[in-house]
Design goal:
By secondary structure, the protein is α+β, with helices and mostly antiparallel strands. Helix content is 37%, strand content 27%. It has helices spanning 25-33, 42-52, 107-114, 117-127, 170-177, 180-196, 208-225, 234-248, 295-309, 323-327, 343-354, 358-366, and strands spanning 3-9, 12-17, 59-67, 75-84, 87-92, 132-138, 153-156, 161-165, 201-204, 253-260, 263-273, 276-284, 314-319, 331-333, 336-341. The relative contact order is 0.15.
């Protein structure tokens, strides 16, 4: 393991590393005690630092905070440092793939750390150099990173998250939350498709070959549909495919497809954490006149049905304000950002990030993951 530095701060010590075994029992135990999300889970972070970081130009910064006398960390902050046009930005392990970011530690331990001024000073010192620390996309129930970062600004994220609660069962949710027009539309579209083409079948894939084929189709379909698509980049494709294959056997990841006579028509991919299913990627065929049957919505509806039946009460559409989420009766969940700046360059970068006009649009084109 590469130890960058160790510093001692009033009952705690902070270690900064470039490598860490996120599949270790140590991290698994810490993650289970934390109010973190699936995007900080062991497999997700293992693949993130192994597959995405090496070719990204980002520098891994993994901060572990220990109580004196303990051989297990009270908290871990998985971070990366990126440099864009000379501006050094420290962010959580994200690079455009994490919809939520969170500190990894129990609320009790994080409160103790936040109430220790020496630890807060030491944490900022451990992260230097930076012009801006940008801890984005916090969920409301997460421990607020602003409490731990000295001099932090807290602002709304530009996009919201959306979710539905199907804890009472799919049928009850579907009738109570989805509009009558939407319910009738889904039924009409499926009946029309099956009348004209044949039975539409749905299944969750379980073997490496079929999952790889589904991801290859998803890549092709998304390249046709989206002008800018991280999924088209080889390392991002490999990252998601690895999560799908390795996570399937432990129930963490799901690749859900629709088929007609054995041919794939749609692919939905997501991950599971506690009682929550997090919907991440989708693609569907629109040729041969299929576009009028909304195969994407049909697949999504069946995925919600399946996940509710297996006990995942919350179907999380994750971040993004797409209208289709409201069609399923989803509740809007506000997300927040926490920012710390250093010097005039950091303040200028923060101003650019907070802007809502052409400046921000230009920034997103220049730096696609800075969004």
């Amino acid at each position: 393991m590469d130890h960058q530095n160790i510093s001692v701060h009033s009952g705690y010590w902070i270690e900064v590393c470039q490598e860490y075994d996120f599949l270790s029992n140590e991290y698994s135990a810490l993650f289970k005690s934390a109010a973190a999300t699936a995007f900080q889970s062991p497999l997700w972070l293992h693949e993130f630092y192994k597959t995405l970081v090496p070719g990204s130009g980002a520098e891994p910064i993994i901060i572990k905070i220990y109580r004196d006398g303990s051989d297990r960390p009270d908290a871990i902050l998985p971070l990366v440092r990126e440099t864009h046009f000379g501006v050094q930005i420290v962010q959580p392990a994200d690079l455009g793939v994490a919809d939520y970011n969170a500190l990894v530690g129990s609320d009790e331990n994080l409160r103790l750390l936040a109430n220790n001024p020496s630890v807060r000073d030491g944490l900022i010192a451990s992260i230097r150099p930076y012009h801006m620390i940008l801890f984005r996309k916090q969920r409301p129930e997460a421990y607020d990173a602003a409490q731990l970062f000295k001099g932090a600004n807290k602002t709304p994220n530009t996009s919201n998250s959306y979710e539905v609660d199907a804890g009472g069962g799919y049928d009850e949710w579907f009738k109570a939350s989805v509009s009558k027009n939407m319910r009738k539309g889904l039924k009409r579209k499926r009946n029309g498709f099956e009348k004209n083409y044949g039975k539409l079948e749905f299944e969750e894939l379980s073997d490496e070959r079929s999952i790889t084929e589904a991801f290859q189709l998803m890549r092709e379909l998304r390249e046709e549909r989206y002008e800018s698509n991280l999924f088209s980049q080889p390392e991002f494709f490999e990252f998601y495919r690895n999560i799908a294959i390795k996570g399937q056997s432990e129930g963490f990841a799901s690749t859900f497809v629709s088929k007609l006579d054995g041919k794939l028509l749609s692919v939905d991919f997501g991950i599971r954490h506690k009682n929550r299913f997090l919907f991440l990627l989708a693609a569907f065929c629109e040729d041969n006149g299929f576009e009028k049957y909304s195969l994407g919505l049909l697949g999504l509806n069946e995925l919600i049905r399946r996940e509710a039946a297996t006990g995942h009460e919350v179907f999380d559409f994750t971040i993004g304000d797409e209208p289709y989420k409201l069609s399923f009766g989803a509740e809007q969940i506000p997300l927040t950002n926490v920012t710390v700046t250093a010097g005039p360059i950091g303040q200028l970068a923060f101003t650019a990030y907070q802007s809502r006009g052409p400046f921000r649009r230009t920034l997103k084109k220049l730096i696609p993951k800075f969004s």
